[in-house]
Amino acid sequence: MSLEIDRVSKSFDGKSAVLGDVSLSVEDGEFLALLGPSGSGKTTLLNIISGLTAPDRGKLVLNDEDITSVPAARRRFGMVFQSYALFRHMSVADNIGFGLRVMDRAERPSKADRKARVEELLAMIDMAGLGDRYPAQLSGGQRQRVAMARALAISPRLLLLDEPFSALDALVRRDLRRSVRDLQQRVGVTAILVTHDQAEAFEVADRVAVMRDGAIEQIGTPDELRARPATPFVESFLGLGPTAPDWTI
Amino acid sequence: MSARPLLIAIAILFALVVIVMPVAVIFARAFAEGFGVWLAAVSEPETRSAIMLTIVTALIVVPINIVFGLCAAWAIARFRFPGRRVLLVLIELPFAISPIVAGLCFLLVYGAYGPVGGALQPYGIQLMFNLAGIVLVSLFVTCPFVVREVLPVLSVAGEDEERAALTLGASGWQMFRFVTFPNITWPLVYGAILATARAIGEFGAVSVVSGAIRGQTMTLPLQIELLYNDYNTTGAFAAATVLAFLALITLVLRGLIALVHPVRGAAT
């Protein structure tokens, strides 16, 4: 699915804009990262895409469908939250199967089919046999993978990732970055990642949009950004300036 | 020397003198003349009607309280709106106001000469000195219980989980039913039990608005006082055992909840 974001604006207090006329297009199957410091509006933009926050102005078009006023529950976008937001009173299997269980009767798969789908996803995230555990019994990395599987279970039209690695220690983070990228490729879903970590964005994403003060400063492939940073902000934020440390990944 | 035995002794002695003894005496006095006399006393038509009225009141008040408590706790925990802080304070107000003052306030507003009661009078609607009045003041005094138990849990039970449910396609109802409600089930039940205990035992506020019509608007606590003032000690103590028994049931339920309260999922 391709997503067209057309001049989206948002202000929470009616005065200062958190997002000002942001336009962006995400191609089918692409992995895009929204990269920026805190307060740059990247999370707000992701929430607007998910439908959890309504934009003041602007339009969102998915393929050829205007989804601006479609509620979050009807968008079928899988979302992985920074806190993972796993349902603490449900087992891992019930967490993953939740999106299938709440489907309209007409579309909802049978109980057996749902169970099979959950097993398949558990195997995909290397957690086969752990479906009976509860979130509190899992490691941070396992919780992140469950959150990922839960988002993928609904065969999402878009995958949205809000700082999904920030709560993990460095070693686990490296592993999971690869596995998230790997899962996205295997499923073939268009994905948008929000992060403040340039190494993470460069490693995972096909293209990176650098955000600052509610606007997109520059967008391009990691190679393009490295070779031709458009503004001094991009250059310094990516650590590309003359005094910057070595940025080998 | 260690303070340990002394502290334990003080605690136990205090509990015995202040809590156990009075309750034990009620039961002892009530059954002093035998079970038959006790049974006859509690089956007196007036006492029976008081027991029924008390139970009916609780059955009306507690469900309304649960619904209101859930709505208020949800609104305060999830939304920022003008008057939110005021609402928070208002809900606690019944704890601060003496029940008898609350009863008088209701009488002044909903009585025949009050603004609301006066306006309803021509239509033949009377809100005081009957079940409606007793229910109204009981709602007032029990109002804080459910909100107070549910609100703190709802505030920490992440909004993120609810947002996740929405992105996964859940309707508002499904989100509440499958995600929000399981997190607040026990606080809700606990609040409802406390509200029930209070509704059953309330004396002051109810005594002002009940009108004290024998066999009609006497709740159990009022009936006990009436019997006692009539020098019918056996009847008073027998009725008191019924009230104490209802209170003990709520106490046992409280204990049971503490036992089964699920502790898994401290962190997600």
Automatic annotation (TrEMBL), chain A:
<dbReference type="Pfam" id="PF00005">
    <property type="entry name" value="ABC_tran"/>
</dbReference>
<dbReference type="InterPro" id="IPR003439">
    <property type="entry name" value="ABC_transporter-like_ATP-bd"/>
</dbReference>
<protein>
    <submittedName>
        <fullName>Sulfate transport system ATP-binding protein</fullName>
    </submittedName>
</protein>
<keyword id="KW-0067">ATP-binding</keyword>
<comment type="similarity">
    <text>Belongs to the ABC transporter superfamily.</text>
</comment>
<dbReference type="GO" id="GO:0015697">
    <property type="term" value="P:quaternary ammonium group transport"/>
</dbReference>
<dbReference type="InterPro" id="IPR027417">
    <property type="entry name" value="P-loop_NTPase"/>
</dbReference>
<keyword id="KW-0547">Nucleotide-binding</keyword>
<dbReference type="InterPro" id="IPR003593">
    <property type="entry name" value="AAA+_ATPase"/>
</dbReference>
<keyword id="KW-0813">Transport</keyword>
<dbReference type="GO" id="GO:0016887">
    <property type="term" value="F:ATP hydrolysis activity"/>
</dbReference>
<dbReference type="InterPro" id="IPR017871">
    <property type="entry name" value="ABC_transporter-like_CS"/>
</dbReference>
<dbReference type="InterPro" id="IPR050093">
    <property type="entry name" value="ABC_SmlMolc_Importer"/>
</dbReference>
<feature type="domain" description="ABC transporter">
    <location>
        <begin position="3"/>
        <end position="238"/>
    </location>
</feature>
<dbReference type="GO" id="GO:0005524">
    <property type="term" value="F:ATP binding"/>
</dbReference>
From TrEMBL, chain B:
<dbReference type="GO" id="GO:0005886">
    <property type="term" value="C:plasma membrane"/>
</dbReference>
<dbReference type="GO" id="GO:0015419">
    <property type="term" value="F:ABC-type sulfate transporter activity"/>
</dbReference>
<feature type="transmembrane region" description="Helical">
    <location>
        <begin position="87"/>
        <end position="113"/>
    </location>
</feature>
<feature type="transmembrane region" description="Helical">
    <location>
        <begin position="125"/>
        <end position="147"/>
    </location>
</feature>
<dbReference type="InterPro" id="IPR000515">
    <property type="entry name" value="MetI-like"/>
</dbReference>
<keyword id="KW-1133">Transmembrane helix</keyword>
<feature type="transmembrane region" description="Helical">
    <location>
        <begin position="236"/>
        <end position="260"/>
    </location>
</feature>
<feature type="transmembrane region" description="Helical">
    <location>
        <begin position="7"/>
        <end position="31"/>
    </location>
</feature>
<comment type="subunit">
    <text>The complex is composed of two ATP-binding proteins (CysA), two transmembrane proteins (CysT and CysW) and a solute-binding protein (CysP).</text>
</comment>
<comment type="function">
    <text>Part of the ABC transporter complex CysAWTP (TC 3.A.1.6.1) involved in sulfate/thiosulfate import. Probably responsible for the translocation of the substrate across the membrane.</text>
</comment>
<feature type="transmembrane region" description="Helical">
    <location>
        <begin position="51"/>
        <end position="75"/>
    </location>
</feature>
<dbReference type="InterPro" id="IPR035906">
    <property type="entry name" value="MetI-like_sf"/>
</dbReference>
<dbReference type="Pfam" id="PF00528">
    <property type="entry name" value="BPD_transp_1"/>
</dbReference>
<keyword id="KW-0764">Sulfate transport</keyword>
<dbReference type="InterPro" id="IPR011866">
    <property type="entry name" value="CysW_permease"/>
</dbReference>
<keyword id="KW-0812">Transmembrane</keyword>
<keyword id="KW-0813">Transport</keyword>
<feature type="domain" description="ABC transmembrane type-1">
    <location>
        <begin position="51"/>
        <end position="258"/>
    </location>
</feature>
<keyword id="KW-0472">Membrane</keyword>
<dbReference type="InterPro" id="IPR005667">
    <property type="entry name" value="Sulph_transpt2"/>
</dbReference>
<protein>
    <submittedName>
        <fullName>Sulfate transport system permease protein</fullName>
    </submittedName>
</protein>
